[in-house]
Amino acid sequence: MATITTNARGQGFSASVLLAPLRAVGRFMVMLAEASPQMRALSRLSEVSDEELAAKGLTRDGEIRRILGGTAAL
Question: Is 57 within the bounds of a domain?
């Protein structure tokens, strides 16, 4: 297996310089979304099996709609 490496130093302007702020904004947006109460509730729901939900008389679709409220577009 061959490995190719490049040395970008001294070759002028790099596109990564322009993309760095966009990546930082993207990471911040993901962090905000993951910190929301809805996202935490959906994460907990994903850890529950369908059998456990059925034992409680619930469905996964129903719980998603409950958690997301009017924003659930399934």
Answer: yes
